[in-house]
């Protein structure tokens, strides 16, 4: 299913504008972006440094607000929610993976993975979490603390935690930025596999063409605008597209 009409949208922004600051120092980080992230797909957001990738992700995920335009998770328009509802939406319907892992150091691997469910007051779900633990390959590390794991293992815990609450969408911001290429490749393969096997949705910001090649589709930003999309990307094609941004105007 690749037609827009047949595909459900997990998250989207419409006419998104984000201006930081005022007056002479104002920066237009998003300049009228409309983009939909289809459910059940892995989408990468790419573009040169400063093109608005992180801003787009933060606004789409409800971590920051737009200056104008709308952001939606499923059918919920984020701008209509008060702070409490927005916090609940982020907790229950969105998963996050950040460059810096962001695990709770005092909790074990298993407790970190189960955290979203515990916070939501959900019990049970033993089998599904068990399956998730196997997907990320951490069965023999469940009693360890994050400091006893390698960077790649910690990020696999973060990926499992992001999916544990069965979110509508997982947002990943440079998830392999702190990892060597082998561990990074494992984490990206894990993200892609989890999307394929569980039908979940991932939106990932990256500046790395090799990372973007794990996605089903890449959307390209330049100067706060959406300038291109690429289905079934390869690292070479993404790199070629990125080089075109470097041509001096
Ligand atoms: N809190 C802020 N206050 C002021 N300007 C900001 C703020 N956050 C981002 N910007 C500016 O908005 C623009 C877009 O930034 P953003 O971080 O979204 O880009 P990016 O594509 O993610 O960049 P990078 O790849 O370097 O992380 C940049 O010009 C940046 O300097």
TrEMBL record:
Cited InterPro entries: AAA+_ATPase, ABC_transporter-like_ATP-bd, ABC_transporter-like_CS, ABC_transpr_LolD-like, MacB-like_ATP-bd, P-loop_NTPase
For this protein, the record's CDD domains field holds: ABC_MJ0796_LolCDE_FtsE
Q: Which UniProt keywords apply?
A: ATP-binding, Nucleotide-binding, Transport
Question: What is a single molecular function from GO for this protein?
Answer: ATP binding
ABC transporter domain residues = 11-248
Return the GO cellular component terms, semicolon-separated: membrane protein complex; plasma membrane
Matching Gene3D superfamilies, A to Z? P-loop containing nucleotide triphosphate hydrolases
**Does Transport appear among the keywords?**
yes
The UniProt entry, under PANTHER family, shows: ABC TRANSPORTER RELATED, IMPORT ATP-BINDING PROTEIN
The protein, known as: ABC transporter ATP-binding protein
Organism name? Streptomyces phaeofaciens
């Amino acid at each position: 299913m690749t037609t827009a009409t047949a595909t459900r949208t997990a998250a989207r922004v419409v006419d998104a504008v984000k201006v930081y600051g005022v007056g002479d120092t104002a920066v237009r980080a998003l300049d009228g972006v409309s983009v939909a992230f289809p459910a059940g797909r892995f989408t990468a957001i790419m573009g040169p440094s400063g093109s608005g990738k992180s801003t787009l992700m933060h606004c789409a995920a409800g971590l920051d607000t737009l200056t104008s335009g709308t952001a939606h998770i499923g059918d919920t328009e984020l701008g209509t929610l008060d702070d409490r509802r927005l916090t609940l939406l982020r907790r229950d319907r969105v998963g996050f993976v950040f460059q810096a892992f962001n695990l709770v150091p005092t909790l074990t691997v298993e407790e970190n993975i189960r955290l979203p469910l515990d916070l939501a007051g959900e019990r049970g779900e033993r089998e599904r979490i068990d399956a998730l633990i196997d997907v990320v390959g951490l069965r023999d590390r469940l009693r360890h603390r994050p400091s006893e794991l390698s960077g790649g293992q910690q990020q696999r815990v973060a990926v499992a935690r992001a999916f544990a609450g069965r979110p509508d969408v997982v947002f990943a911001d440079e998830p392999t930025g702190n990892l060597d290429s082998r561990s990074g490749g494992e984490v990206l393969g894990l993200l892609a596999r989890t999307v394929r096997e569980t039908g979940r949705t991932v939106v990932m910001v990256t500046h790395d063409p090799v990372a973007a090649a794990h996605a089903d589709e890449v959307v390209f930003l330049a100067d706060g605008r959406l300038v291109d999309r690429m289905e079934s990307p390869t690292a070479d094609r993404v790199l070629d597209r990125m080089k075109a941004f470097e041509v001096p105007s």
